[in-house]
Amino acid sequence: MSRIHCPRCLRPEAHCLCPLIPSLDSRTRVLVLQHPSEVNHALNTARLAALGLTNAELIVGEVFADLPALLNQPGYQARLLFPGEDAQTLQGYGADDQPLLLVVPDGTWRKARKLLHLNPLLATLPRVTLAQGGVSRYRLRKAPGPGALSTVEAIAQALQVLEAPICFEPLLKPFEALIEGQIAAMGEEVFLRNHGPN
User: Fold this and answer.
1) Which of 11, 21, 49, 177 ranks highest by number of CB atoms within 10 Å?
2) Which pairs with CB-CB distance under 8 Å and at least 24 residues apart come from 144-150?
3) Does pTM surpass 0.85?
4) Which domain of life, per UniProt (predicted)?
């Protein structure tokens, strides 16, 4: 018999994260394009980010037929949050700056690159990236490189930079609870053996 899941956060009902999910306003609009392989991932951080922001949308797929309309949001400049040689480091908004539509591909690095390949319009967007030195709180996996963050961490950090001094830290509360729950389920000894310092 399968466990009952919360229809909102998709977690098992006994581990529902909804009480921890904030409802934060942002000047920036966030559009998360999620690869289908991420939907049933135990740590679906993109969903947590989309649920925690009032000005965010999460769309699942590989090819997005309505991408031109999604990117052409009146009053917003579309930018792709993805590293690259020509990516500009995000800066805070100036007084007269038009807000950004921050497009965030969600998946493994390979799957995220595949989304860009299958949706050439994404590759034409100006790219933005986070400043170097971000440290992930995602203690259950080895980061593929320095500064590699989960989707919710990247979104929270991007909004923190763009909209300072507004605090987007509450966006990470359900993520941290999820990590703690996973560690508790595996037991401290197993966690330290597999994920502790070498």
Assistant:
1) 49
2) 144/109, 150/43, 150/45, 150/175
3) yes
4) Bacteria
